[in-house]
Amino acid sequence: MSILAAFTKKSSNKLFLSLSLGALSGVLFSGIMPMLMSGIQPEDPNFESTEATVANFLTFEFYNYKLAALFFVTCFFIFLTRTLSELILLRLANDVAKDIRTEFYYRISQAPLPVLEQLGSSKFISSINIDVPKIIAGAKTLPVILVNSITLLGMLGFLAYLNFSVFKLVMVAIVVGTFFYQVPMLFGKIFLQRSRDIRDDLQESIRGLIFGIKEIKLDTLKRDKYFDLELLHNEKLILLNENKSQTIIKSTKNFGDLIGLLVIGLVCFVFINYYSVAQHELIGVVMALLYVTGPISALLNSIPDVTIASISYRKLNDLLAEIPSEDVSQNISPVAEWSTLRFEKVEYQYPGVNDDNSFKVGPLNLEIKKGEITFIVGANGSGKSTLSKLLTLHYRPSSGNILFGDIVLSDSLISSYRQIIGAIYTDFYLFDRLLIEVTDDVAAQIQNYLVMLHLDKKVSIFNGQFSTTSLSDGQRKRLALLVAFLEDKQVYLFDEWAADQDPLFKAVFYNEILPNLKLKNKAIIVISHDDSYFELADQMLVMEQGMLMLNTKSLLDDASNKKIA
Q: In which residue ranges of the chain is CATH 1.20.1560.10 found?
């Protein structure tokens, strides 16, 4: 879909009205020159102004007052139609920009998590912050292009009426000038495309700087290497390509601005030596040519914006094409009662990895019961994180079935069952507000939880928004836990939640929070290395090289014996 099609889809009526007003402005604009020529070159050479041709208005005398009135009325309507045309299109452009961004938001929210993890956030942020504004900037040149195109056509027609030989010269100059304008612009476009592609890499480098700042601060050599190989390297490449493209574009635009003047010079210094042109006709031709240089310059100057917009539009569409929609129903319905979450021969293979020796998880057979605490343990890289995302339905099995009770999870049900699951991952994101309705009962619960989690002195909540999220890692996790409590899910997964807590809150989490959730008949899944609390588990799942160990009772017994000892 082209940029123009996007505007048409949003509001074809507004687009048509804007273009129509722009066309009318162009027609009126092209009529200005004939009026001026008629005013300064009356048909009768013996013409002298008389009282019949002069009128007084606001103490000013107006010669040829009828033509003067027509001129000023035309100027007013040019101002009115052109302003309305541009304002309508500007507002339409803002609506289209919002729609493009909104579509982006929904496409991201409905995309499979593995695809988003593979693409990374940098491309999305670059496209929203760079491509969308440039697309809209290019689209906003439509009235300028239309007005000046029609003005140019009108003035060329008037020029043909004045002197057809000069008209032919001007047409040849426009064709030749356009050719010599477009060829350099093609090279400029290549450099702009390279610069745009490198910006994605720069965005990823900036992300690395922000999230890797702790590591970089600990090693000056590492920081310097990162700057040289990533940040400054990409900056140099962008600067090189931007300088080349801007040199070509600016030089070409300035050449375009001179095309009209060069034609005037040819007419005044060369053309009159081969063709007979009356003096008053030559004056008219020169004025028309001076007048026509403005529209030509405006048209040529709009080409870079359109070029950049086309690059950004293609980049945006290429990115959207990489984001498939998750093939599940978005309809949410109440789920059937269940007591057991089961995996039957569940396997997961990461997308795009076809090597038989590559890491995969499964086949897995397990049961998670309501009213029980299940611990998942294992070394780093054993598959715990993949299993956790399968349990929370973020990953969909490559093979096998997931069942809630006797209901086999299908594409039509997965969105509904996701609603009953709450999770706090190690890389959790803490939103700055509660995304639930805050009733009086909820507000009372919030205050109780703040006190229980020792956050009442740190955080307050007003109109559902946290007063701050600038907290320690442990406090942020406690605030995330508060949110999870308020959401009241049936399944809870905690991924190393206690890792950042002091001994006091670690004990509170294991000895109070988890048992309380168990009493509420929640299905509780805890990924943990805290072996001193393994005795709390009703079930222990041990992951090793993507597989689930069957004999887990001995680990629970060992933990119990250690506690007794």
A: 3-321
Residues contacting residue 51 through CB under 8 Å, at least 6 positions apart: none
Alpha-carbon distance 430 to 200, whole Å? 26
Cβ 536 vs Cβ 515: under 8 Å: yes
What's the whole-number average pLDDT of the chain? Answer: 82
Query: How does pLDDT run across 511-557, given as a tens digit for each residue?
Result: 989 999 999 999 999 998 888 888 899 999 999 888 887 545 555 55
CATH superfamily assigned to domain 3-321: ABC transporter type 1, transmembrane domain (1.20.1560.10)
| SS3 assignment, position 389 | helix
- pLDDT digits 0-9 by tens, 261-292: 788 888 888 877 877 777 777 777 787 777 77
- Reference 144, options 278, 19, 281; nearest CA is 19
The owner of tokens 């541009």 is 86
Under a CB-based contact definition with an 8 Å cutoff, are residues 85 and 25 in contact?
yes
Per-residue tokens: 67: 């033509």
Question: What is the maximal distance between C-alpha atoms in the chain?
Answer: 125
Instruction: Please identify which residue in the block is written with the tokens 């339905």.
Output: 393
Domain with CATH 3.40.50.300 in the chain: 340-564
Query: Nearest Cα to 428, choosing from 374, 363, 483?
Result: 483
Any residues with CB less than 8 A from the CB of 139 and at least 6 apart, and which?
A: 3, 4, 6, 7, 89, 93, 96, 309
Domain 340-564, architecture per CATH: 3-Layer(aba) Sandwich (3.40)
